[in-house]
Amino acid sequence: MAQLSQPTQKLISRYQQWHQSLQPRGGVSTIHVDEVASKVAAFYEKIRTIVDWKEEHLMRRSAIMRKLKRRFVNLEFNDLSIAEPLVLELIRGGHFPNDRIEESKITEVKDTIDKYGFIFKNSPPAKSGREKLQFYNWLLEIAACEIEEILSPPRKENALINYMFDLMKERITLNEGIIASEQIGEQEKNIQIYIAVQQALFKLDRPIISYNLIKYQYPQWNVAKSEEFSKISKNIYEIWETVENHLNHPLGKKFYVVCEKYDTPYLILGDILSEENPKEIFGKISQPEIMEGLVKKFYGKRLSTIKSRIMRAGFYSTLSILLANSLSLVLLEIPLAKLITGEFMPITIAVDILGPTLLMILLTMTIKKPSKNNLELVTMETIKIIYERKKIDSYEIKIPKKRGVIIRSIIALIYFLGAIISFGFIYWIFKLAKFPPTSVVINIIFVSLITFAGLAIRKKGEELNVEEKKTKLSGFLFDILSLPVASVGRWFSNKWKKYNAIAAFFNALIDMPFLVFVEFLEQWRFFLKEKKEEIH
């Protein structure tokens, strides 16, 4: 038997505690919502999945944010009786399981809303209306993260994050050039590793990482007393600025690249601890030959799920853009075309609707699986992190070499030529389909969005890769032509999230009436049950 490292033993213990937490507690009241109302609400949330166009693992918190914003209409935490209807609405929508969440969680959610209301009301005045709105949104995002954590504590995820964080602190070293230039100190290095680990393992976004950073720097954040929060409220803008500086650190991408490359062994180990019998896992992992078999087994499982996740992500991304594209076609493109040219050809409509869909299908179908050699590398790296070893691998963070003016100019010129060729080809396709000028501009935007989403999904297809990726000439040319388009798509994607007109329409005109309808349906169902009970 091989000697398990101390961090590995600690991780196994935390996973065993997580397994125990899944067992239902006897004699504890849980929250129940009506099944029929829940099915109706869950169907609506599926529609919102298409409209909001977010990553699958972000949809639950997106729903919490949406519902919080709707209830705090006037930028004020002025209604502190919303905890129970908020939790019930989230369970009805299928974001949390029915009959599993303890009723005491409602009180915890209320206390959390009270806390953030206190911070908002006692924070210093904002310098401008825009800053106040940005601060309000940021604080609401942090509140949504804490509410999600209360209703569904991420025990195993946090255990794996802390495990990789502890090991990466030992393995990641700084290049002498970074140390000499004093770009980053030891504390900032650890914070950047902590951020990179969260991004690499679970693709966490800025709000949840911001929340975790606050807890990392203020361990008493979730249990602090009111007098402590008076001090926090006065310094909340400094806390906000500090968190944003950590997230925008110029070397952050370098840490992410290293953590993203070596995250697969940690993910595989997490899968093993999640699904294997917790009582037998110590004995199995302590034997390298058994452990190797488990790594291969769960590597195969994770590999088999990648394709389905990619297709699902591609489907929702495409459908969201397709919906917006169709609406723009009916409400904007056709009326403008008739006004300018007097007609809109049938072939134009077909290309307008089917073009983005076919592009996404092409991008997702050309994703390649990892090579067979990758499995051997994953097995070897997993063994390295599990057992005690005298020699520890190190991953060096280096400062990128400064390019001269001539080299920078040549690179910029090649990038610019790639952009001209790519957008010129797209323009030529649309002109062949006889698109009017206004539709050409609109559809170039949609193609950019699809390209960005498609390349992001292709990146997910490489999440198990540990081996160095060899770039062929075809891949090199593809990058030259696709990255300028994807960069434009990334910019529009960020704007889309801020100004998603379809989502705004749903929020303003459908969300509230639908909520009233679902609550009425649930009350009606309870009324019918009471009447049935009267019949003997």
Please outline the helices and strands.
Layout: H1 6-21, H2 35-52, H3 59-71, H4 83-92, H5 104-122, H6 129-151, H7 155-171, E1 172-174, H8 176-181, H9 186-202, H10 206-217, H11 226-234, H12 236-247, H13 252-261, H14 264-275, H15 281-285, H16 288-340, H17 346-365, H18 372-386, E2 395-397, H19 405-432, H20 437-460, H21 473-498, H22 501-534
Parallel strand pairs: 1-2
Brief overview, please?
By secondary structure, the protein is mainly alpha-helical. The chain contains 22 helices and 2 strands.
Question: What does it look like?
Answer:
The chain has helices at about 5-20, 35-50, 60-70, 85-90, 105-120, 130-150, 155-170, 175-180, 185-200, 205-215, 225-235, 235-245, 250-260, 265-275, 280-285, 290-340, 345-365, 370-385, 405-430, 435-460, 475-500, 500-535, and strands at about 170-175, 395. With about 525 residues, the chain is an all-alpha fold. It has a two-stranded parallel ribbon with strand order 1-2. The radius of gyration is 26 Å and the shape is globular. Residues about 500-505 have low confidence and may be disordered.
